[in-house]
Design a protein that fits this description.
globular, 142 residues, single chain, 5 helices, alpha/beta
Length: 142
Amino acid sequence: MITRLNAILGKNEIQKVVLVGAGQLGSALLNYRNFEKEGIKIVAAFDIDPAKHVQKNAIPVLPLEQITTFIERNKIKIAILCVPDVAAQQTLDILVNAGIKGVLNFTPTELKAPARCVINNVNLAVELENLIYFVNAGQGSG
């Protein structure tokens, strides 16, 4: 049973992930080293800004135009989306068409994807508001 659970959770092999959007949040995630402890490896990042393209780093930052080929060639199923909200849906469409099955969405945009793609939205503002609510509610019951 543990073997089956590990297979479902993807713990039986390294889970290769791509990141799209190498701005401030994307760069912070690229520098986060605890992913690999959990069997997750960001294998490449993609950005439209040529100034961010670096192939010699441990995790290369490549031109967005290369993402479809990279995903297909490396059989990537998961992506992290850190692009500006105005580019989010178009970028998601590219990812889904390339074969991505799951997206961790850090954009504040409500994305639409086919049923074959799971989107997990991370809205940092909402998470912070939740925390503020519980802290303030706890102080009132004092």
